[in-house]
Amino acid sequence: MYFIHHRKFLARILLSAFLTVFLFHNDYLTVSATAEELAAESEARKLLPVQSDEIENWPTGPQTSAQAAILMEANTGIILYAKNIHEKLYPASTTKILTSLLAMENGNLDDMVSFSHEAVFSVPVDGSNMGMDAGESIPLEEALYGILVASANEVSNAVAEYVSGSIDDFTDLMNMRARELGCTDSNFVNTNGLFDENHYTSAYDLAIISKTFFQNEMLCKISGTPRYHFEPTDTQPDDFYKNNKHQLINGEMPYEGIIGGKTGYTDQSRQTLVTCAEKNGMKLICVVFKEESPEQFTDTVELFNYGFQNFQILNVSENEEKFNIKNVNFFQADNDIFGNSKPILSIDTDSYVIVPNMADFSDLDSSIDYHIDEEDHVAKIDYTYNSVYVGSAYVNLSEYAESIYQFEVVNSDDTPEEKNENDKIEPAKEETSPAKEKEGDTIFINVKNVLIGVLIFASCFICLFIIRALIVNNHNSKRRKNRVDRKKHRRERIRSNFDDFDF
Predict the structure, then answer these.
(1) Which sequence positions are flagged as catalytic?
(2) What is the pLDDT of residue 147?
(3) Less Cβ around it within 10 Å: N or C end of the chain?
(4) DSSP collapsed to 3 states, 412-470
(5) What is the tens place of the pLDDT at every residue in 402-435?
(6) Residues ≥6 apart with Cβ < 8 Å to 48
(7) What is the pLDDT confidence band of residue 371, given thresholds at 50, 70 and 90?
(8) Is 37 buried (19+), middle (13-18) or exposed (0-12) by CB count in 10 A?
(9) What burial class does residue 492 get, using C-beta atoms within 10 Å of its C-beta: 0-12 exposed, 13-18 middle, 19+ buried?
(10) What residues contact residue 341 under an 8 Å CB cut-off, 6+ apart?
């Protein structure tokens, strides 16, 4: 059995080699001429404008020979370098990043992936493959190594059938997931990136797909593997190795901090490359489209150096003053609201911005939005540098506040037994009326200011009361004095009248 499968594998390799030699022999002069044209096109692409260079006080980026290129921070989506990032181009095998992402999101690594006749024979024999035959099967985890390390087209098809039942249904899933991630320049019609005029994406779209891809530790591990050993099993009898063609991963062009990536090539797309690297606390994704080898690798290195050397991370909670919780008197609470009160609202301590090295946090413009749908977040602060988005931070309800604002809902019509039963229920969230849900307004109440206002009002009231009392008392005093004076005058008149008599 092993010999039969091994012979099939060798036959496919020999056929591929024959086709390559035949085509090369018949088209040698054409290839030579095309190489000169490609070199000229590569030089011309270096003169294409870099949109990020037009930003005021932004570091000037390298002149790449790519038709389109992007350097994006993997956690926040901040764009550090942009060159034609929304131009629709052919992605070639970098398509397999989305294929692998969907397999990880919708599959189980231990499940077996079977190879149908369509999965194996619907791809060109001289294309990238690893010699799988119809009827064989391998675990999904091993299939992902086949897709991301060996770049095997037939494995991408088999995984698509495993996830969705058919290749067509899987491409529908690809397009739906791409739209969910925010892609607007993409349309996918196959699982592996083989050329089709209707199969395209942009550097930006592929970067935001890769952003989700590189958040998965297993996908990072697999895509960063230089060489993988496929061992024989009962359902796959061949023993062989596959090498990763990504030079920053396989050691041909070592670069510190490489996490993973994917290569791609067709005659129409030329060289395409996706790479992720982490250094200096920054995790960057680089996508380059339409280059000539080995410039897809050298330009990726230049772009990584540009990003890591010219930009810095600034923690928002450590630098923010305008929205600092202590300075703006946000709602605080504890047993002593005038003393050691605890903040109920706080800025997320993990949020950061990425700005050029010469910029300070004070150079940033900010805006706060209370109309957000994210749970556990009260508001979101967005930051821009010369009108370019550089990061955001959330204003959160602290754990202390969450423990304070837990309310029990008890129906006044409940019987004593029902009320006792309600006491056992966990505190329920306060219901929100449709009107409130529609408006989504957030109201902050400053207890200190309210109490100060009450004290001022009470003081004014007391002062008015005292003034009125003084006025009334003064008036009464005058009346008493007048009565005393009248009595005195009356006694004097009586006395004077007695003096007129001679006793």
Answers:
(1) 93, 96, 151
(2) 98
(3) C
(4) CCCCHHHHHHHHHCCCECCCCCHHHHHHCCCCCCCHHHHHHHHHHHHHHHHHHHHHHHH
(5) 444 444 444 545 554 554 444 443 433 434 444 4
(6) 67, 83, 84
(7) confident
(8) exposed
(9) exposed
(10) 332, 333, 334
Is the peptide bond preceding residue 226 cis, with omega within 30 degrees of 0? no
Digit-coded pLDDT (tens) for 170-201: 999 999 999 999 999 999 999 999 999 999 99
Mean pLDDT confidence for 367-395 = 88
Question: Which tokens belong to 178?
Answer: 């791409």
For 57, the token pair is 């006080």
Pick from 67, 74, 83, 71: which is nearest to 307 by CA? 71
Asked if 208 and 182 count as a contact pair (C-beta separation under 8 A), the reply is: yes
Closest by CA position to 89, among listed 182, 184, 203: 203
199: left (phi over 0), alpha (psi -120 to 50) or beta: beta
* Cross-strand partners of 288: 69, 273
d(CA 251, CA 233): 30
Mean pLDDT over 353-369 rounds to 94
